[in-house]
Design brief:
Helix content is 20%, strand content 40%. With 446 residues, the chain is an alpha+beta fold. The protein has two domains: 209 residues, PmbA/TldD fold, CATH 3.30.2290; 222 residues, no CATH class. It is globular and about 75 Å long. The model has no long low-confidence stretch (mean pLDDT 96).
Length: 446
């Protein structure tokens, strides 16, 4: 089945006639082509289509939920949702989104919709060829691959909400392995966009190769406290961990570093953090969230001061706030939770950014961190961390030698609180974006 507005509206009506006080239907369909190549031939090729729908009902302040991939099961899906509500706890904050006009945002590309398998294969091969051509020390590649997706979303509910949109996305990635003198190093790169024109498949291969080669000849350093430059890809990883604390869901469950901190300075005053669903072409952009609420640009931290959390309909009602359009679902078979769309770090107004090629010059001595292992182990409640890193040692503002087997430790809020500069090299990796960051007085151990 395709996502169908008439089907969704009819199902809402069925749920109400069957005894639901309120009802919502969420439909999603995907068409995807994915290619992985190896040694200039196709290693894996898949072309798939999937679709399904879910029903949420509220009856006597109790939530029921059911889903299916089969439209002929619609009546049974409704009844299963209503029956499930009988066993749920009562919750006064349950509700569905009211109808509101969606915001216009560019998320659809005909070039991706119309892509053929041969074209997809050719683009994946550009990644592999560029990586091998970049440097003779690149001996192996892991998963040079490209993916192209067309999706359709329909959301309807008993508050007269009906939303429908089509979206596209494409991505490219590869891990390159460089070898020299018995030593092996890896480098990775990834690009994604809703527009095909934004992806340079060859550049992904070249950048991954360069990332691997620059770490050859790595050596250990002694423990010290020093300034660092956090590569934008590593900054994105840290921001991804920090994002959980910006969720009202985490705040309300007592699992956020930022609970009770609205209006206070939480990180460096040169940082602004926003979640913006309206950026053209970004993979997190969409006209409505996964409850049908119109999306928006939400300023979360301004000049280091926490000014908002992210909300969906449920957490907004519970927190006496308005939804920020941040309801997300893992798919049609999942309930909505709170999540980011396009989360990004920017310089605070008047702060400015540093040209990327001049970042090293801002450090007389320090460490440029290009890879971090185990960022997922950061304690989400305390913010404490100790993680392995690789990078480049800087002397007199110039790269000196690559560094291996080092560890940085600290606290997430203190870490972002010591940001003293940022580059002009903003880049998104999926739904999170950041420039490179200069951070002062970081503990580095061997």
């Amino acid at each position: 089945m395709k996502a169908d507005a008439a089907f969704a509206g009819d199902l809402v009506g069925r749920a109400l006639k069957s005894g639901a006080d309120k009802a919502e239907v969420f439909c999603k369909s995907y068409k995807n082509i994915s290619v992985e190549v190896k040694d200039r031939s196709v290693e894996a090729l898949s072309s798939s289509f999937s679709s399904g729908y879910s029903v949420r009902v509220i009856k006597n302040n109790r939530l029921g939920f059911s889903f299916s991939t089969d439209p002929t099961e619609a009546g049974r899906v409704v009844m299963r949702a209503i029956e499930a509500s009988q066993y749920a706890d009562q919750d006064p904050y349950l509700d569905f989104a009211p109808s509101s006009p969606a915001n216009a945002v560019a998320v659809f590309d005909e070039s991706i919709r119309d892509i053929k398998e041969d074209d997809a294969i050719g683009m994946a091969m550009q990644i592999e060829q560029a990586a091998y051509d970049a440097d003779s020390r690149i001996r192996r590649l892991r998963k040079p691959s490209a993916s192209f997706t067309l999706s359709e979303t329909v959301i309807a509910n008993s508050a007269d909400l009906l939303a429908r949109y089509e979206a596209t996305s494409c991505s490219a990635q590869v891990t390159a392995m460089a070898e020299s003198g018995g030593e092996s190093q890896t480098g990775w790169d990834f690009m994604a966009s809703r527009f095909l024109k934004d992806i340079s498949f060859a550049e992904v291969g070249r950048y991954a190769a360069a990332s691997a080669v620059r770490l050859l000849g790595s050596r250990k350093i002694r423990g010290l406290k020093t300034d660092i430059i956090l590569d934008r890809s590593v900054a994105v990883d840290f921001l991804g961990v920090f994002a959980a604390s910006l969720s009202s869901e985490s705040v309300q469950k007592g699992k956020s570093l930022l609970a009770g901190r609205l209006g206070s300075t939480v990180i460096s005053p040169i940082i602004t953090v926003s979640d913006n669903s309206l950026l053209p072409g970004r993979t997190g952009s969409r006209p409505v969230d996964d409850e049908g609420v119109a999306t928006q640009a939400t300023r979360l931290i301004q000049e280091g001061v926490l000014i908002s959390y992210l909300y969906n309909t449920y957490t907004a009602k519970k927190g006496n706030a308005a939804s920020t359009g941040n309801a997300v679902r893992a798919g049609f078979s999942s309930l909505p939770s709170v999540g980011v769309t396009n989360l990004l770090i920017e310089p605070a107004p008047g702060t400015g950014s540093i040209p990327h090629e001049r970042l090293f010059g801002r450090l007389q001595k320090g460490l440029y961190i290009v890879e971090a292992m185990g960022i997922h182990t950061v304690n989400p409640v305390s913010g404490d961390f100790s993680i392995g890193i690789s990078g480049i040692w800087i002397e007199n503002g110039l790269p000196a030698f690559p560094v291996k087997e080092a560890v940085i430790s600290g606290n997430l809020l203190e870490f972002f609180g010591r940001v003293s500069g940022m580059g002009d090299d903003m880049r998104f990796y999926g739904s999170i974006g950041s420039p490179s960051l200069i951070i002062s007085d970081v503990d580095v151990s061997a």
